[in-house]
Amino acid sequence: MRDLAQLALDEAVAAGAGYADARAVLEEGESLSVQDDRVEGVERSATRGVGVRVLVDGSWGFAGTARLDREQIMAAARRAVAIAKASATAQRRAVRLAPVQVATGSYTTPYGTDPFDVGIDDKLELLLAAAAAARGEPKLTLAKASFDAWRTSKWFVSSEGADLQQTLLQLAGGVECIAVGENEVQVRSYPNSFRGYCATGGWEDVVALDLVGQAQQHAEEAVALLDAPNLPPQTGTLVLDANQVALQVHESVGHPLELDRILGYEAAYAGTSWVGIGDVGSLRYGSDHVNLTVDTTTDKGLGTYGWDDEGVPAGRHPLVANGILRDFLTSRETAPYVDDQTRSNGTMRADSWGTIPLIRMTNINLEPGSGSFEQLLDEAGDGIYMSTNKSWSIDDKRLNFQFGCEVAYDIRDGKLGKMYRNPTYTGRTPVFWGSCDGVAGPRHWQVYGTPNCGKGEPGQVARVSHGAAPARFRDVQMGVR
Question: Rounded CA gap, 425 and 446, in Å?
């Protein structure tokens, strides 16, 4: 595969590319799901191919092929150059790439046991046992359990001399407990909604979730929600569990800080942003408690790798420091738009060999504060605690939003009390983050993966992560009025 990438690169340069890079990619996937005592699905997939990206006279061209003979690889390289030459006829501004330290080397995400080496029967046995444990609650209607794995091998070469190989091993696993009443359907998910735990690692990480041991408790909560009241409309103190904070970061921080959205490149598909280029260093994004980073070195993160898909090395960069905007998610092309910035922070990714890299979230983390979750509750006064995302709605500038969670509880005297169903909260991004007056400490900080982040046209799906701890917000509008 590396030799095929080099062949594509050499042909692109020979055809007139001023800059070229080539990615050869092999991706393998597996998805297993069960419902109650039966297997719902077992899928295995694999795809491989080579994508070539070129610059000719300051304009991009891209082409890819899954036909891996020499003639087809060389034809794809020439096609990329032809597309770039055609693009140059409509050029508004020549592409200028920020410099990068040219690297050679290899990287593999850490893991113990490769899940692809574990027998499918063994995986299904665990999932069926978890579903059976959930059905220990006799009033539960449905119990589901799932497992996913992705192994991506990449070879990247560039006309600047980069020569990189990476293997990324990612997985997911979880339980979903569904209770159906006369007029209600309620769900409790473990350890998170939308495929559960999603991270880099090995089979041992799924085993450590203890899906069997956790299933019945979440089944009981799903059933209890059928008789719980809806959360009454109110404005007050809200404490979010770390899993919901992670999605809040995704939607109201990660997306609006993608620089291609800010520049208008994404407007046709996913909208733009409420943030402007000139806001760096002055915009108050949140309170002093709000510190956010883009960190492609985060342990277990789905956005963790050695280099992005244009050869920029992994690293950690501040996005918001003590509430003040400091940076965006950038690429080698867009970084020069920000005060003539001389580096990309390494967030360019493509979801396959057949797609051109885009600015994508990697690991966007809310840094931990201090103190315990119990202190966060104790200092809340009267309030509401919400956990586990159920729904989201946010405008195309990522400014106005509403989120729904699976469950909520009263906070009284520092303790969790009465349960509520169908809780929601709403807000405006800078006002909401500005109301944050506490983030729990490192002991409560976890990384949560999102396996289905969509962007681009044609659309691409990326797997991204967010590190977060429970956090407290004041004067938040909650419930449906």
Answer: 22
**Which residues neighbour 40 within 8 Å (Cβ) at sequence distance 6 or greater?**
33, 34, 144
- Print burial letters for 399-414: b (CB count within 10 Å at least 16), e (below 16): bebebbbbbbbebeee
pLDDT in tens, 130-182: 999 999 999 999 999 999 999 999 999 999 999 999 999 999 999 999 999 99
CA 20 – CA 320 distance, rounded (Å): 33
pTM score above 0.85:
yes
Burial of 237 (0-12, 13-18, 19+ CB in 10 A): buried
Sorted by where each starts, the structural domains of the chain and their CATH numbers stand as 2-227 (3.30.2290.10), 234-478 (no CATH)
User: What CA–CA distances, in Å, run from 264 to 143, 273, 332, 334, 339?
Assistant: 44, 8, 17, 12, 18
Residue 299 confidence (pLDDT) above 90: yes
Q: Is the pLDDT of residue 32 over 90?
A: yes
Return the closest-CA partner of residue 128 out of 141, 145, 142. Answer: 145
